[in-house]
Amino acid sequence: MSIDGEMETDRAATTALRPQRPGGNELPALLRAFYDALFASFGPQHWWPGRTRFEVVVGAILTQNTAWTNVEKAIARLRERRMLTAEALHRATPGEIAGLIRPAGYFNVKAARLKAFTDRLFERHGGSLRRLFRLDDGALRKELLSVKGIGPETADSIMLYAARRAVFVIDAYTKRILTRHGLADHAADYAGLQRLFMDNLPPDTALFNEYHALLVKAGKDFCRPAAPRCGPCPLNPYLEGDGPLLQKSHGR
Description:
single chain; mainly alpha
């Protein structure tokens, strides 16, 4: 889930990971150590909040560039009006949807995106989310990305949290943490950052779910854009090592 801003780019450019990075089993061990430190400090995050898989899809679209608390208000309004189904949103006009999702911000844009998704669901999959989710990983991601307004982060959030696929979601928080810990350069693209996790961790949906949520919490509470709170951060020990990946880079 992306909160307070998305990293919706998926360029084919070469990933700008630092050339001096761990080899062999060192990087998988480091990523696992990050996870263990975050989990020990924060505990389970219980993502994604949603009563149905369709509600999770709606949440993934509404949470673009806004806080989750605002999304919850919008979802509550949709639920009150019995609009939290694919059929209801498919039948509704963009204006009707926009009026209900105002708390989520950018309500006209997001209403159009919800309409685009539900219209595609009915055009190609008989209105069935279950049928859509029968596609293999590559086909499902391609289908999601073909919907206007759905970028890599939103597509992967839908795949991980709604379709329950082992896909790692990258957001601005994750990139900030990786660059400050020397694991990636600022020029790193979405696909490259995603490979960093997926090539070095087991393809485990539950692990990817929890890891992404923990990184978001660390980014919000400690690894802030300005004046990061490095001292009390659970990942602080990994800023103090001697290796090329563990150098301090607080100002980055």
